[in-house]
Hints:
Elements: E1 2-7, H1 15-26, E2 32-38, H2 46-53, E3 58-61, H3 73-86, E4 91-95, H4 101-109, E5 114-119, H5 129-145, E6 148-151, H6 154-160, H7 163-166, E7 171-173, H8 187-197, E8 203-208, H9 217-230, E9 234-239, H10 245-254, E10 261-265, H11 270-273, E11 279-282, H12 291-298, E12 303-306, E13 320-322, H13 328-340, H14 357-368
Parallel strand pairs: 1-2, 1-4, 2-3, 4-5, 5-6, 6-7, 8-9, 8-11, 9-10, 11-12, 12-13
Helix pairs in contact: 3-4, 4-5, 9-13
Amino acid sequence: MKKILYFVDRLLPGGVQSFLKTLSKELPKDEYKIDFLVLDDGNDYSKYEKEYLDLGVSIHKLDGIWIRHLKDYKPFEKKIGAFFKENKFDIVHINSGPKNYVVAKYAKKCGTKMVVYHSHNTDYQTKNIIKKVYGNSLKKKVAKYSTDYLACSFEAGQWMYSKKILNSDSFKIIHNPIIVKDFAFDEKERTKRRKETGFTDDFVIGNIGRLSKQKNQKFLIQIMSELVKKCPNARLALVGQGELKNELEKLTKELGLSNNISFLGFRSDVNKLLNAFDLIVMPSFFEGYPIVSIEAQANGLPCLMSDTITKEALLKDNSSMLSLSDSPEKWAEYILDNYINKKNDRVAPKSIEQYDSSYIVKQLIELYCREQSI
């Protein structure tokens, strides 16, 4: 049995975590023993961690370790070095930006044969230029200590790796998987969910993701302010939690949109809730490859996204992209003309099958089997 360690900074709700949860469910349990390694930002994620523990996963946490400043790397290296001396794995699969290259460094130093680095983003969370320059310098260390290089999209690969790596056999695009059948459109579920949420005959826009600067829900609320002027029964459902919740709720009240915007919080039933929506709007500043867009289109929903997101995410003909330099009014007009005043089909594209968990897991197993010959 192979021992695999998956690294992710935190097990809070998110696209990368959904990817890892799917792998925890789908990888053959008689062939793979799965462990997780996470850091400690000082918050309690035990209610989310329980979902992984229930799947038979072991979770290791580096208590007190979180990278905020350069000085944090010294205790990080000390603890991660001790961890890999005490725990041996056949494969270490790191889901992170370059700042956590230390995991790859010590995994390799302590004898791990296959060290996989997996890029899930196309930019940094910070706007600090100095931090970005330093982060870019760490990409060379990612290349040095890893044996295999993955990305959820080609753009995510371009952001993390050199041209040499992108053109090598060691680079592979592994899309974020979903269990496609779980997201199929269900008319009965739509009626049920719209009744529960009070949407009735409204045109409902969904946005699913952390309430954060990256996801740019503030701009989405400004779009709604323009949209309701022409379509009073337009509704927005914000699904997720995050540090900007209070700020977004305040903006909603200031714009007089309390009857048009619902904050639904974290939901574990997203696959069912999608049936209640008519459109997904994602004005994110950046994304590696948003798994929400795949889930939504598997349900037959069209998606309107910012053009900062990879074009690979456009699977349905009626899914589109607009620039964040366009005004909220222009976004509102586009929604009105192309989605509210125009009938759109509720059929999933055939290409969605390549994102099914069975297909992605097969790709990963083929990769992991290479470990025997390294």
